[in-house]
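Late entry, adenosine-5'-triphosphate complex.
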Amino acid sequence: MADNKNIKLRVEDLTLIFGKRKKEALAMLNKGASKEEILRKTKCTVGINKANFKVYEGEIFVVMGLSGSGKSTLIRCLNRLNEPTAGKVFFKDHDITRAGNKELMNTRRNEMSMVFQNFGLLPHRTILDNATFGLELRGDSKEARYERGMEVLQTVGLKGYEEQYPGAMSGGMQQRVGLARALANNTDVLLMDEAFSALDPLIKSDMQDELLQIQGKLHKTIVFITHDLDEAFKIGDRIAIMKDGVIEQIGTAEEILSNPASDYIKAFIEKVDRKTVITAETLMFRKPTIVQFGKDGPKGAIRKMRSTGVYVLPVENSEHKFLGYVELADMIQLAREKERTVEKALKTDVPSVHKDYTVEQMIPLISNNSYPVAVVDKEEGKLIGLVTQTSIVIEATRYDDDEVIELIEKANEI
Ligand SMILES: Nc1ncnc2c1ncn2[C@@H]1O[C@H](COP(=O)(O)OP(=O)(O)OP(=O)(O)O)[C@@H](O)[C@H]1O
Ligand SMILES: [Mg+2]
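Prediction complete; structure with ligand written out below:
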């Protein structure tokens, strides 16, 4: 995501140490001591170690890591449910770490709401009263509260359940109420700590879809905590991976998959289903040789094929719009027939995609005609790259890339 986007949250060198001898522990940390060493010498636990990141307006920023890596500690520093030991948290250029009590309360009620793992519903209140609890604390009138409550319950798919009690509802439905309550306050930022982790897998997947759908409409800024990498990759625009209180890498799913920053992350992502994450943009080769329609005739096409060593080339018009492919055999035929243009042999019924198509979406485009998949821009249909069928096959089969390449090479020798 580009830096010219509005920054909603900015975290600078955020550090949190649990225990009594914080100063000593911090001094050790600043000198490069390890978490274990600090624990041994000071009995203090380093919860977060100099975290730096920005969260842009409208994005889902996922913080992911194993149990105990510091995710909850980190998210709770954003609204100061946990008190940072050092470093800063800015909300829209406003330093949260220096906010007074009143200001903090205001921030929690009106700027950043939180959704918890265990839903946090009050059992003796109806769904409507649970969803509007934050508004009640804020002092809104009953009428205003209920009007807003009905709206957000509809948003999360719970219309008709207003008068029910939480105990009568499934986990998934309870968490919808939790989400409705966070949405009711109409804050720009949502902090979600393992919001879906307690749900069974199918309901979890539904909730993820629901969240993405709601996000598509409301464009909140969401910090979402999970220990589930598949969940992180599914819903995160960008993902921060934590280990022992340190953020090891921040990036999009693709950036992390194609360029893991450490062996730890490499090991972590091995299990991920790359074909749902890797896109045409990653696989394509840019600047392919192109036959210019109207400019290059059959002979020109043959010359370009000879010089690149391929027998199929893409064709574009003078506005660089992708038109299709031409093949060497056809070009030779047309040249013999003294045709001036490639038009007669232009194959237009060929696969083309946008750059954000995943491998999974491209698999059905593989066919025995062996044309590459053209990657064109959404606006004008300009050709920006080509994805070979082989690279799709390699990605689609979840083997180690080298192994597959070897298999293909062997097959070609026969
Ligand atoms: N109140 C506390 N006092 C002392 N240590 C704590 C406290 N809360 C958390 N820790 C420690 O800080 C580290 C980070 O814990 P945290 O709860 O943030 O991890 P997490 O990534 O959210 O884990 P989980 O996936 O289990 O929720 C752990 O080593 C934990 O034991
Ligand atoms: Mg946690």
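DSSP finds 18 helices and 17 strands in the chain. Will revisit in the morning.
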